[in-house]
Design brief:
mainly beta; single chain; 2 domains; four-stranded antiparallel β-sheet; 2 helices
Length: 461
């Protein structure tokens, strides 16, 4: 016998009602959530643009026009749909304060950064059904505004090769021991063997080998220090603007006894015996040669080499202080022989010709030390148009202090014994160091040139 069950009417309606509530919730989430996402994205774009605008104005005025920067940032936020009207709050701060979550970030209190916060509310549509009538949205952006300033060029590396491509921009060979103290090495080339080492080489840096391209090692090569991926710099560099020396001569130069007098020298200044160059300007149209056992003393002189070469040979020694050497048409400076050469507070501006220092004794040259001098801390400068080689050869200790900057010229340093101590930043188109001695670069930023560094405007958050 069968029992008739009661019909369970109305259950489908309950399920449909529950489904409708879920569907409405999903629609609310899609519509209100999508609207909130769009408003947040628009607010973030507005905050980013306003922060960058304020940073640009701060950099242009060397951080000196904050009210203008603030007003321009607020105006741009208004243009982008977020006016500071009470419902929406736009805050522009320098230095930054806390973020949207009330947390202190890494930029709080730092005057180099600008912060824009946008707080706004939007009305919901379907979310009101579940009691949510408005949604709060907060976005913030931080931009860095660092004005251009003077600083150590090319990442402050002790050895720099500016060549932008190809192999052996920096090349070490022989039995060389290269030590870079308090700094490192920067190779701008993107070549497959941009940094080459061949032989029984030991290369040590205190910071890093910063190489844009790749390095190649052949032989017994030891490197001490990390290798990092270099960030290339534009070549030719545009921030090097070192003025030519203004050396004008009057009268005719002559030698009377042991005194050499300034003026225009149309024939070679060919002194013999111990001589003193009197203070003043010398325009050498046919060069100068000091041979034999000549000892030359030159203090407070400016020498413009317009023809021929300036050279010392044999056992001659050259001593100078407070001097400017300008090669403007001549074939270069050549210090040769076995005599000591010692010049302090000096600069060699080599527009034409080469520079060669040879010998079996120590050469000591130190750069100019007056901060107001246009050649402050600059020992040798070869501008872009000069592609002649700069060569330092020696079998004993050379001591050089001040930047050696050859924008488009190769630099070659060779030695067979002892230690070459160079308190310099060596910057060349290429740099080659070979031989059997030790090359020690003891880099000190305070003893080398500073060049204009570009301003920094970047969105950091």
């Amino acid at each position: 016998m069968f029992t008739k069950q009661k019909a369970q009417r109305g259950q489908a309606l309950i399920l449909i009602a529950i489904g409708i509530v879920g569907l409405v919730g999903m629609v609310a989430l899609a519509i209100d959530g999508g609207n909130a996402y769009k408003v947040r994205r628009d607010a973030q774009n507005a905050a980013d643009a306003s922060a960058l605008t304020a940073a640009v104005i701060m950099v242009q005025t060397n951080l000196g026009a904050w009210s203008t920067a603030q007003n321009q940032a607020l105006a741009l936020a208004t243009v982008n749909g977020f006016s500071n009207d009470g419902i929406t709050t736009v805050t522009v701060e320098n230095p930054p304060g806390v973020d949207c979550n009330g947390d202190s970030g890494p930029y709080v209190g730092d005057d180099e950064y600008v912060q824009v916060l946008i707080n706004t509310q939007i009305d919901t549509f379907f979310a009101q059904i579940v009691g949510i009538s408005t949604l709060d949205i907060c976005t913030d952006a931080v931009a860095r505004a660092k004005p251009g300033e003077y600083g150590s060029p090319f990442h402050g590396a002790g050895i720099v090769a500016l060549k932008p491509d190809g192999d052996d921009a920096v090349f070490f060979c022989g039995n060389a021991n290269i030590q870079v103290k308090k700094s490192g090495l920067f190779v701008n080339s993107n070549g497959n063997c941009a940094f080459g080492m061949n032989g029984n080489i030991t290369a040590t840096v205190d910071t890093s080998f910063d190489v844009v391209g790749n390095s190649c090692k052949v032989g017994n090569v030891t490197t001490n220090g990390p290798f990092t991926d270099g960030v290339p710099v534009p070549y030719p560099p545009t921030d090097i603007d070192i003025p030519e020396p203004l050396i004008e001569c009057t009268g005719v130069g002559q030698q009377i006894g042991n005194i050499v007098y300034p003026g225009v020298w149309n024939s070679t200044l060919n002194a013999s015996g111990d001589v003193t160059m009197a203070p003043g300007n010398y325009c050498l149209m046919a060069g100068a040669t000091f041979n034999g056992n000549t000892d030359v003393e030159a203090n407070d002189v400016n020498i413009r080499l317009q023809g021929g070469e300036f050279q010392t040979n044999g056992n001659s020694s050259f001593t100078c202080s407070n001097a400017v050497f300008f090669v403007d048409g001549g074939s270069g400076f050549h210090f040769n022989g076995n005599g000591d050469n010692n010049c302090t507070n000096v600069v060699f501006y080599v527009k034409t010709g080469d520079v060669t220092w040879n010998g079996n004794v120590a050469n000591t040259f130190t750069a100019r030390t007056d901060p107001d001098d246009p050649y402050y801390n600059l020992l040798i400068y070869m501008p872009y148009e000069n592609t002649s080689q700069l060569t330092i050869n020696g079998n004993s200790g050379n001591h050089l202090k001040g930047t050696i900057l050859a924008v488009h010229a190769p630099i070659v340093i060779n030695g067979n014994s002892g230690t070459e101590t160079i308190d310099s930043q060596i910057i060349g188109y290429t740099v080659r160091a070979c031989g059997n001695g030790t090359l020690k670069i003891d880099y000190d930023a305070g003893e080398n040139i500073e060049l204009p560094q570009p301003p920094t405007i970047e969105l950091t958050k």
